[in-house]
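Posting here for the record, re: phosphoric acid mono(formamide)ester.
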Amino acid sequence: MIAEPAVTTPTPPAWRHRHLLDVADLGLDELETVMRTTDAMATVLARPIPKVPTLRGVSVTSIFYEASTRTRVSFEVAAKNLSADIVNIAASSSSVAKGESLVDTVRTIEALGADVLVIRHARSGAPYLAASIFGGHVVNAGDGWHAHPTQALLDLYTLRERLPGADLHGRKIVILGDILHSRVARSNLWTLTATGADLWLCGPATLLRGFEALARALPGDRRLTVTTDLRAALRDADAVMTLRLQQERMAAGLLPSLREYAARYQLTAERLRAARPEALVLHPGPMNEGVEIAPDVATSGRSVITEQVANGVAVRMALLYLLAGGRPAESADAPA
Ligand code: CP
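Prediction output follows.
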């Protein structure tokens, strides 16, 4: 039998972070390390049997206090591809439903032998509380409005993969929709402006509150425009990411109605004509087709929405590897 070739991963100085709580903690060189490590993991995924022994003996537990399909499943697939053991807990069917506190739940998970804790929570900051008591590594899988670091990293990877030259400098990227309640927008704001994109945030004024002040406060080398003018935002855009209206986080009165929102801000094929002919369409999911995005746009040749989901596995493999591998390795095949 012919042995599979070793997968060469970058050899970063050491990964200095114990946890992944926010992309704002990552420098440009570290974003680059994540991207290159993801390339290596994508090579593993292209094999007939996409599995390496790198994290054998590492125990990962995920606990989701909010619903999830993509993030939960892709962390599970990522951990299994690296030969880690993984246990998934749905908070709704755990002792959380009997009133157990987050602190007691985290202590219990640690006592049961977890080395890595992947946590999603409706409250911003919950992963920080978990990290303050958990002895291993904590990965934020989305906390309230605050951050969704692995989503921003997979979005960055997808954009680099699909935009010519893999370079975001000067690329006009639009995030459209419910910016106010979006942890995805906040995390993407950090990574996309850090990597040189010309980022535009667009939506109804009520869903942009606070972002104009943020744009003014950003360092001069970061380019961020905040606008309610969809046509101006889409003009010559290289990529457009639409966002779901997060009604579970939305106070009454922020929007007249879904119909009104769709009439003014839905990404339709006609509106997308203002963008560059080859402009990419992204959506972090889950989508409400017919509200923030027209069904034909979601499934058009410009859409990279399915690629975002697929890249989520490689990105999460890279992050588990960097956090729990203990040291940089010459090869993703190297034992942990
Ligand atoms: N993008 C995202 O977080 O999707 P899920 O809620 O399905 O995990």
